[in-house]
Amino acid sequence: MKTKPQPHASDNCLKGLQKLTHNPQLLAAQNIFIAYSGGLDSHVLLHLCASIEHLKPKITAAYVNHGLQVEAESWGKHCEQVCRDLGVNFLSLTVHAHATSGESPEEAARNARYAALKPLLAQDDVLLVAQHAEDQLETVLLQLFRGSGLKGLSGMPESMAFGGGRLIRPLLDIPKAEIVGYAKAHKLDWIEDPSNQHAHFDRNFLRNNIIPKLKQRWSALDRTVSRSAKHCAEAQDLLDLVADDWLSKVRNTCDNTLSIKQLQSYSLVQQALIIRQWFQYFGLKMPSQVIVQRILGEVVAARGDANPVVLTQGCSVRRYRNALYCLKPSQNGLGDELIWVAGKSLLRIADDVIYQAEASSVGISCERWRNSSVTVNFRSGGETIELPGCKGHHDLKKLYQEAGIPPWERAAIPLIYLDGKLAAVGEHWISAEFYCEMDNACFRINRSISGS
Fold it and tell me: Model confidence over 290-340: pLDDT tens digits?
């Protein structure tokens, strides 16, 4: 009786990628970037892709030097030589992956790596990364130990938007043993990063100390946990649809604030989901349960005349009247005097805030503007302005209150002076002395936020 031949460990690994070659996004890709560290997993991924004839001409292997290992430069040279031997393009990028407050070294390195890779991708480009089934297992377990909700327990998606294109994880269902088998079968020469043995990193501790013991009892652990992650991801997708609908009913589209009155018409559980969806809209990380509870308890539920603040991820969440705001640092006030250079139409007052003097039939007299020294200051208190068609001077504080401008925004509104006289208050008001109504004879001040 003939025995059925057993598949080689590398066969399943190859099947995993061959499934992906039927993916329309990969077939249509103009460029295929592969995140290549020189380690076992990314070397196998690169070797697999380079062995597929119609993919090879599109491939660029991108090596990221994090500046954390003394061997990083020599590793880069190794990666370049491998790419030369395989006949694929090679790109080396250097980043500085130093952890900020509240950020682990692992997270800092990952964030720096992705920040460097993201600009490479234009529309229809893809980035392939070599995370596999055991990486997914580690991710889900770490999220579980951190008390994450459905989004965290969904693990890593197989495909996601990234830069101008897509990030794809073609080996996500492939066990580590099959990747090792493929590498040995093809006699690949890969880099062993000694930091992978450092147990003070949570992921390494799980990988080297805990998961091998778990697998002694539950050998299919990576597959079963991956299946649970997919169930969580499906549930999260449905929840996102519902939360998006709730968010749309309470979000003010002109300034991305939330109506507190409408928010409070939902249950506390629903309010928490809306807050999390709001954070996702701003591109922020999911807030912890403690932060959500503080926002709902300290800010949303505060008296209407109170001014509570919750700080998180470099932003401040606060209320004014019936609106809930999530403010970036540049929206929290400015200070020093600025010169609006003659002949320049634009003035940048913060990294992402620009004011522009645009031609208009109503605004500041062009003649007065061009023949004056134009300076910009910010409110210190007590400023007044005389408005066109109105008698007497108006206190800026009262004008801001009547216009419903939140207190923290007032400090960031530029006061524009012509030869030392207050001519305009941002885009809001123009002094009667400088006011002009005449075709092609005026400038109007407008504000824009770049990158918003």
Answer: 999 999 999 999 987 788 889 888 888 999 889 999 987 654 445 567 888
Amino acid at residue number 18: Q
User: Phi, psi at residue 35, to the nearest 5°?
Assistant: -70, 105
Sorted by where each starts, the structural domains of the chain and their CATH numbers stand as: 9-227 (3.40.50.620), 253-327 (1.20.59.20), 338-449 (no CATH)
Phi, psi angle pair for 311, to nearest 5°: -95, 130
Tell me the percentage of the chain whose pLDDT exceeds 90.
Answer: 46
Q: Residue 245: is it exposed, middle or buried by C-beta count within 10 angstroms (0-12/13-18/19+)?
A: exposed
- CA count, 13 A, side-chain hemisphere, 386: 8
Pick from 116, 103, 124: which is nearest to 66 by CA? 116
- Does pLDDT of 103 surpass 80? no
**3-state SS of the chain: helix, strand, coil percent to 5?**
40, 25, 35
First-to-last alpha carbon distance for the chain, in angstroms, is 70
Give CA angle at 399 (393, 400), nearest 5°.
Answer: 145
What average pLDDT does this structure show over 35-49?
93
Mean pLDDT of the chain: 86
Which of 131, 141, 133 lies closest to 209 in space, CA to CA? 141
The burial of 244, by beta-carbon neighbours within 10 Å (0-12 exposed, 13-18 middle, 19 or more buried), is given as: middle
Two tokens, residue 286 = 């999911």
Q: Residue 351: which of 328, 320, 370 has the closest Cα? A: 328
3-state secondary structure of 155: coil
Q: If pLDDT is split at 50, 70 and 90, which confidence band does 402 have?
A: confident
List, in order, residues 6 or more apart from 250 with CB less than 8 Å away.
Answer: 258, 259, 262, 263, 266, 274
Query: What pTM was estimated for this model as a whole?
Result: 0.71
Residue 353 reports pLDDT greater than 70: yes
Per the CB < 8 A criterion, the answer to whether 260 and 324 are in contact is: yes
Alpha helices in 24-63 (DSSP H): 24-27, 40-50
